[in-house]
């Protein structure tokens, strides 16, 4: 009886559509700008329909060598970002599933101390320890390396906590049965635990991939050479309002290229994404 | 929790081996730099880096007495409160509406969640494209309406711009949590109120909103943490803390003092203060989580 209110539902649809327009407009506007010529962009207001320079601009940015940021092509920047995002996502999942496995399925001296040591890192985001971390990276010679971009961001308490929580729900009978059948810890991990964790791994992968792709402060500190830069940092370097030579149409193309991969991951893996988000609770 | 002793494997060394990678990374990249930050925060280095001396809490005293620091504290509070309120209010409105419609739920959700995938720095740039005075179409419209819009020169307008970008990006996250929260409210409660004659608005404020309180509170903490730390990219890409120091948040100031101005002791003291803030926020968050476990 509450649901049967057509006027209310109509208003709901209208508000949702307005919401979607607000949410989508900045991205749509940038897409439109990416299909215009430089002159059209510099002469506002911009038309609200895509222009006719889609292929021209996109091929110029990707292959033409025009949209180069300090001598580096967009393809290289995208590749760096992909390596970083995949490295962080896969690395984080691997090390945290192993440590959660150790904490839940073994009893050993110092177990809880180790758990707390990992847990407390929740309270130490990069932002609060910028300078000393940077010094360590310089001392270890990790500036301008993929290792430097990936390794320090791999340790995370959230992923470990998520796996730990999930492992605790696995009935002890399963472990017992495995042990009776003569399966060692490695067999149990590979044949029982991993298959059971599939959904959790997928959910975590989506969240972590986006986390890695959208990093800003860390790659800003870790990279000096342009060819090791990520797409977001590269884009930041392209933007200059003071500089009359800024090729805005190519900036817009780069912008679209930078946000497309993570958006595709979110939309295509939506089910796992929503699950991962609501379950990790950040 | 009936925690009967878990069945475990008897190995002695294997668990240490399994923990080793995470512990190594945590020790090198978390504990070592964090302890360095604390150590440096009580030292004073001369400008040439030749000698250092122990100064106790002097750095903290200076930082907390510095009008620039108090300014950035104020900027951070205004920025965080505005961002969290706008992002949460819009998300709640959209979630309530999405809960009402029957058709198209999935499509609406898909179309509302993608800003989550946009990097904060890029979110800032998107808004800058729209609103920068030299070529932004919306800036052009605002100006032709006779309003003197220039976020590159006017501090308040710069703040409006970064709050918009930061809130815009966070709507999707809040939306998903509010939708989940709304789904967990028993429909029978709302129907009972409807039978008693409570109108839609009244039902929302007396039943739905109070029952959403745990979600709202959780999101408030998450949004504050987001506004404090994850928005560095927006500020760095859009305003650079300017004009003047109108958009210099605490995190931006740590970066600026440490990397641009190279004042190590002050930067370290600021880091330690930030650490204390994070610890406080995390503690609040976990108290909430605990309560949720107990009451359902």
From TrEMBL, chain B:
PROSITE patterns, per database record: ABC_TM1 (PS50928)
GO CC terms: plasma membrane
Its membrane topology: Multi-pass membrane protein
The keyword Cell inner membrane belongs to this UniProt entry's keyword annotation: yes
GO biological process, one term: transmembrane transport
Key words of the record: Cell inner membrane, Cell membrane, Membrane, Transmembrane, Transmembrane helix, Transport
KW Iron (keyword) present: no
Broad class of the protein's primary localization: membrane
One Pfam family linked to the record: BPD_transp_1
Matches recorded under SUPFAM superfamilies: MetI-like
Superkingdom per UniProt: Bacteria
Residue ranges annotated for the ABC transmembrane type-1 domain, each copy included: 73-285
InterPro entries on file: MetI-like, MetI-like_sf, UgpAE/MalFG_permease
Annotated localization: Cell inner membrane; Cell membrane
Bilayer-spanning residue ranges: 13-32, 77-98, 110-130, 158-183, 204-229, 268-289
Record function comment: Part of the ABC transporter complex UgpBAEC involved in sn-glycerol-3-phosphate (G3P) import. Probably responsible for the translocation of the substrate across the membrane.
Known partners and oligomeric status: The complex is composed of two ATP-binding proteins (UgpC), two transmembrane proteins (UgpA and UgpE) and a solute-binding protein (UgpB).
PANTHER family: BLL4140 PROTEIN (PTHR43227), SN-GLYCEROL-3-PHOSPHATE TRANSPORT SYSTEM PERMEASE PROTEIN UGPA (PTHR43227:SF9)
Family, as annotated: Belongs to the binding-protein-dependent transport system permease family.
Protein's name in the database: sn-glycerol-3-phosphate transport system permease protein UgpA
Protein source organism: Phyllobacterium trifolii
């Amino acid at each position: 009886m509450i649901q049967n209110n057509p006027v209310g539902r109509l208003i709901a649809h209208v508000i949702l559509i307005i919401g979607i327009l607000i949410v989508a407009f900045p991205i749509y506007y940038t897409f439109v700008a990416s299909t215009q010529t430089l002159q059209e962009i510099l002469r506002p207001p911009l038309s609200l329909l895509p222009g006719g320079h889609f292929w021209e601009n996109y091929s110029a940015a990707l292959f033409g060598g025009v949209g180069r940021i300090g001598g580096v092509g967009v393809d290289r920047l995208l590749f760096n970002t992909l390596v970083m995002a995949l490295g962080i996502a896969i690395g984080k999942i691997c090390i945290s599933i192993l440590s959660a496995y150790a904490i839940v399925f073994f009893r050993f001296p110092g177990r809880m101390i180790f758990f707390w040591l990992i847990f407390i890192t929740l309270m130490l985001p990069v932002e609060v320890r910028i300078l000393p971390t940077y010094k360590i990276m310089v001392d270890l010679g990790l500036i301008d390396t993929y290792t430097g971009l990936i390794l320090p961001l791999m340790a995370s308490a959230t992923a470990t906590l998520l796996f730990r929580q999930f492992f605790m729900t696995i009935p002890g009978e399963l472990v017992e049965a495995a042990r009776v059948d003569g399966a060692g810890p490695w067999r149990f991990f590979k044949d029982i635990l991993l298959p059971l964790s599939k959904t959790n791994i997928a959910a975590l992968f989506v969240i972590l991939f986006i986390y890695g792709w959208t990093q800003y402060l860390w790659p800003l500190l870790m990279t000096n050479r342009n060819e090791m830069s990520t797409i977001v940092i590269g884009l930041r370097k392209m933007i200059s309002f003071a500089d009359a030579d800024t090729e805005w149409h190519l900036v817009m193309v780069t912008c679209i290229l930078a946000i497309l991969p993570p958006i595709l991951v979110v939309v295509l893996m939506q089910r796992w994404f929503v699950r991962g988000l609501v379950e990790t609770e950040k | 929790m009936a925690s009967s002793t878990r069945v475990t494997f008897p190995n002695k060394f294997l668990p240490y081996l399994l923990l080793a990678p995470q512990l190594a990374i945590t020790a090198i990249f978390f504990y070592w730099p964090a302890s360095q930050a604390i150590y440096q925060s009580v030292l004073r280095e001369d400008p040439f880096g030749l000698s250092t001396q122990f100064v106790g809490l002097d750095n903290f005293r200076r930082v907390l007495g510095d009008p620039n620091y108090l300014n950035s504290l104020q900027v951070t509070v205004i920025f965080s409160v505005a961002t969290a309120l706008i992002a949460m209010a819009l998300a709640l409105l959209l979630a309530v509406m999405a809960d009402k419609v029957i058709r198209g739920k999935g499509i609406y959700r898909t179309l509302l969640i993608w800003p989550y995938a946009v990097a904060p720095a890029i979110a800032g740039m998107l808004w800058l494209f729209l609103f920068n005075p030299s070529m932004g179409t919306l800036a052009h419209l605002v100006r032709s309406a006779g309003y003197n819009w220039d976020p590159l020169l006017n501090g308040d307008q710069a703040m409006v711009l970064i709050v918009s970008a930061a809130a815009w990006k966070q709507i999707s996250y809040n939306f998903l949590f509010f939708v989940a929260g709304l789904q967990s409210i028993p429909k029978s409660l709302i129907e009972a109120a409807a039978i008693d004659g409570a109108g839609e608005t009244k039902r929302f404020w007396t039943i739905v909103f109070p029952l959403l309180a745990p979600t709202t509170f959780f999101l408030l903490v998450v949004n504050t943490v987001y506004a404090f730390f994850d928005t560095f990219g927006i500020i760095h890409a859009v305003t650079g803390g300017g004009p003047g120091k109108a958009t210099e948040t605490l995190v931006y100031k740590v970066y600026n003092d440490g990397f641009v101005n190279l004042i190590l002791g002050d930067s370290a003291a600021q880091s330690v203060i930030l650490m204390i803030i994070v610890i406080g926020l995390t503690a609040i968050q976990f108290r909430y989580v605990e309560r949720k476990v107990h009451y359902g």
